[in-house]
From TrEMBL:
InterPro entries: AFP_Neu5c_C_sf, Aldolase_TIM, PseI-like, PseI/NeuA/B-like_N, Pseudaminic_synth_PseI, SAF, SAF_AFP_Neu5Ac, SAF_PseI/NeuA/NeuB. Its EC number is 2.5.1.97. It holds the Pfam family SAF. This is Pseudaminic acid synthase. The gene is pseI.
Length: 348
């Protein structure tokens, strides 16, 4: 499959998405700077989230509308106020997308309702991302799938049955190219709660491309995901965590995103195939294996012993496995110290 002209799959380097989310801190200038920093770091795409507080929730203090988990980054926050702070104004989208195009980045978004899909279609986005919390919103899935564009679907919290239902719905509605992202819907996520071994199972079970939406700190989980077959990596991204913002705590900074882009490509390249016996690149190194050499000058008829034969580098003589065989055999002629041992030099 492709997003734009960029191939997605194990024959291509990992597709890295920088998730801006609310890290613009309600500044368009900062949003554009994030786009530039993502491009400089080597990302393939910048991703937004398209919603308003009104399309996400109600302005209410009733139970469920205020985050009451004391361990949450947003403990005590009213959902409406949090979404209002984090949302990306819709009239910013064209400027952000234009800057991304100028910097060679794909730009697309996560829509949270049908009006957001209609708006994003007017901007000709190349793909759509479905958030984990909307993975089971089948009317939204149908709306996005009907565009015929690639869908990247996070699967945080979703059961096998729910993922299957989502995929069947998307495919029936017109989606052809789908990537499932393993995701842990905690912010931040711990490595111990990330369960990357799910990635190859997702691929085998559902027959589509797989990746990782990563909320852990650092790059370790993402690099490991590539080794398990992830072809898409999504990480939240900010200019500096110290600047604050609703998602800053678990977002990468520019130097970290650059490291992720470099090391994920190295991990992908290193996977290669199953090879025994050395590669063509290793051929010259065969010369530095150990082999049997004469280490003292020898006279004709002199017996070979541990005193005058040793296994040393380079590898131009007989293999070390013949050491016991040659002991006691005799030299057919004078042999100078430093001569690689060969059967033609031995008798007996």
């Amino acid at each position: 499959m492709k997003i734009g002209h960029r191939g997605i799959g194990r024959e291509h380097r990992p597709y890295v998405i920088a998730e801006m989310s609310g890290n613009h801190n309600q500044s368009l200038d900062r949003a554009l700077a994030i786009v530039d920093a993502a491009a400089d770091a080597g990302a393939d795409a910048i991703k937004l989230q398209t919603y308003t507080a009104e399309t996400m929730t109600l302005d209410s203090d009733a139970p469920g509308f205020v985050i009451d988990d004391p361990k949450s980054l947003w403990a005590g926050r009213q959902l409406f106020d949090l979404y209002h702070e984090a949302h990306t104004p819709w009239d910013w989208h064209p400027a952000i997308f234009e800057r991304a195009a100028a910097r060679g980045l794909h730009a697309f978004s996560t829509p949270f309702d049908e009006s957001a899909v209609d708006f994003l279609e007017s901007l000709h986005v190349p793909a759509y991302k479905i958030a984990s919390f909307e993975c089971t919103d089948l009317p939204l899935i149908r709306k996005v799938a009907a565009t015929g564009k690639p869908m990247i679907i996070s699967t945080g919290m979703a059961s096998v049955a729910e993922i299957d239902e989502t995929l069947r719905t998307a495919r029936t509605a017109g989606a052809r190219d789908i990537v499932l992202l393993k995701c842990t819907s905690t912010y931040p996520a711990t490595p111990a709660n990330t369960n990357l071994n799910t990635i190859p199972v997702l691929r085998q079970t559902f027959g589509c491309e797989v990746g990782l939406s990563d909320h852990t700190m650092g790059c370790g989980a993402a690099i490991a995901a590539v080794a398990l077959g992830a072809t898409v990596i999504e990480k939240h991204f900010t200019l500096a965590r110290a600047d604050g913002g609703v998602d800053s705590t678990f977002s990468l900074e520019p130097h970290e995103l650059a490291l992720l882009c470099t090391e994920s490509e190295r991990a992908w390249a290193a996977m290669g195939g199953v090879v025994f016996g050395g590669t063509a690149a290793e051929a010259k190194s065969l010369a530095y294996r150990r082999s049997l050499y004469v280490v003292k000058d020898m006279q004709p008829g002199e017996a070979f012993s541990a005193d005058n034969v040793r296994a040393i580098r380079p590898g131009m003589g007989l293999a070390p496995k013949y050491f016991e065989t040659v002991l006691g055999m005799r030299a057919v002629k004078s042999i100078a110290r430093g001569t690689p041992l060969d059967w033609a030099l031995l008798k007996g």
